Each structure stands twice: as structure tokens, then as C-alpha cells.
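pipeline: protein-struct stage 2 | run 1193 | SEC14 like lipid binding 2
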Amino acid sequence: MSGRVGDLSPKQKEALAKFRENVQDVLPTLPNPDDHFLLRWLRARSFDLQKSEAMLRKHVEFRKQKDIDNILNWQPPEVIQQYLSGGLCGYDLDGCPVWYDVIGPLDAKGLLLSATKQDLLRTKMRDCELIQRECACQTEKTGKKIETVTLIYDCEGLGLKHLWKPAVEAYGEFLCMFEENYPETLKRLFVVKAPKLFPVAYNLIKPFLSEDTRKKINVLGANWKEVLLKYISPDQVPVEYGGTMTDPDGDPKCKSKINYGGDIPKKYYVRDQVKQHYEHSVQISRGSSHQVEYEILFPGCVLRWQFMSDGSDIGFGIFLKTKMGERQRAGEMTEVLASQRYNAHLVPEDGTLTCSNPGIYVLRFDNTYSFIHAKKVSFTVEVLLPDKASEEKMKQLGEATPK
């Protein structure tokens, strides 16, 4: 039995009745606590009454703390309204709303330098409530219960800039919030135009997703437009995504419904850096350098780093060792990222590198040019691995999608 209204086993019916009884004190505080709503929490916790109750009570507290009942009256800051990509556009064949997330043009770093993380998360909470409201409207309009959303992730242009650690962490917080407070809301998620980097990006966010959510993710190949039209009528899909829908002015991207983001002008910036925690700290003597080695076992892994220096600039470059086991000078190794001096004492530096070859990669902090000052450098370096299942899936699709 699916655990949905009209498809409950005797045991599930009993659990629903008991669950309603256990949480009756908080039901008046919830927007529409019908059987459909309560069953979402039960399904999310495999009909474990204790866990389902704990989850729902936590959600009630969340609604109170974040004033969710009034969140649709709140207006996000201008920079978020202008540049946070995504939007509701059309309905699938069952009448469920469709939400588009447009990843490529999203300036994640610009957003975090121009708005608070709290406002960004609050905006995503507002989006979740917009979807809930749309589901309620569709329920009224169609005469059948609508409680899920179809997501389309347009990954064209997904690049190393999107792997910036503070941005990934903020997105992880949103995913946790979504999983904990809007269970069983996702119907299916289509990933379209996924580039080679997608398995690495997916592996970063996978820990925030429940097993059930992961099963609903479909990475589509070159025929993605045809696949979408199996689930959504052409008149409900923008021309940009293979349908016939346009804005009233004929815009094929339906920009009145979907925000396509873009680079944020620096006039919106309210800070020049995002506070970060560094895992390592080292004192580099005057006239010397410090090397950190990372073994890359197969191509496609990504090195991600952040560092800052105290008081003065520091040189930084990445090399590939040509001999194993012994320390090599910069001139003896293959240069992968040219060494240059960074003003990391003014603004922390961060970056990513896709490793095209296996081997020992050396991140070298260079203070050889300074004959007077030692430098303290704080840094974090990580090796990001691709998700093997999605990598395999993309190979099966013939890697016919845009690179």
C-alpha cells in the first residue's frame, strides 16, 4: 500500500488515527491538517509514530520561530528578487505545479556578498510556501488533491564557481530545511543539460538528501525535451524548454515567471568576504615556501581551496609531481596553476581546479620573495569526488548533453 488516502493498509489506518490523536494539540496551528497532510509526515518516517510526531512538532516550532504563516507578505531584498534564479511555471499532466531552477547564470558568491544568508534561506522558505499555496489552488481548481511539485533543474553552465564552499553550505542548509519541513512534497526532479561536472556537484549535496528524494532524481540525456513532454503538456512548458508556452509579449523564456539570475553588480555588495573557518594554519618563514600534497586517484576529481594570510600577500600555485616519494622544488614539477601573489591578507582567496590527470598534486604557498617577513597562512583544502552512480548514468546517456 502506498500510504496515501484511499490506499492504506489496516495497520496504516490505525497509525493515522493514533497519530492524529497524539498531535491533536498542535493541529489548530497548522494551515490544513487533513489526512493527506498527516500522512506525509508518516510516510517520511516509514509510519514510525514516535519519529513522525517528533518531526511534526519540530515543524510546528519552525513555523512559529520563522513566522511562516505570514511569510508570503514578506518581500525579499531587491538584490534577491532581481538575481535569485528560479520560478513556478506551468503544471504537469496531473495538475501539479512545476518549478524551474536555473543554475548556470546564478551568481552564488555575489548573492552571499550582497544579502544575508538568513534572507536567502527565508526567501527559499517563502518559495516553499508559494508552492504549497499553488498546490492548494490546484486542488480547488481540479477537484483532486494536489500536494507535490515537479522540479526541473537546468544545469547548463554549471561550473566550478558553483562549488564555492560557503554557497554549497548555504544550499545544504536549504535542502535540510526542505527535507525536515516539507516532506513528501517532491514528486520528481528532472536534471537537464547536465555538464561533466554534475557528478561532483551532486556528490556535494547528496548527504543533505533523503534516500527517498535521491530516488526521485532523473538525469536526462540529449532527448530531455521529449522526456519532459511525456510528463508536461507542451502548452505548459516554455519554448526555451521544448514546449509552446511564451510570455504575453512572446518571450520564449517566460521571464515573467522564471528568473534567470545573472552576475550581480558590485553596487549591491554589502561585504567583501564571507567569514570562513580554516582547518589548518602554518607559519611560513621568510624566503621559504610550504607545500601541501593531495593524491588524486582518477581524473574528474576537483580540488577546492580557501586561504588567507596575515598582514601581507602570499604566493600560491599548484603543481603535479614528476617523481613520487620525495619533495620536489617548483621548477622540477609540472605547473598546473601558475604561481602568483595574492592579497589574501585583504580578501581571502578561494578556488577550484578539475584534475584531468591522476597523481600527486602539490599546493604551494610561496614566501620565497619575502626577505624580511614570515607569513601566517590559514587554509582549507578538499578533494571533491564525483558521485559514481550519476557519473555512470551520464556515460550511459552517451554524454550527448552540452559540455
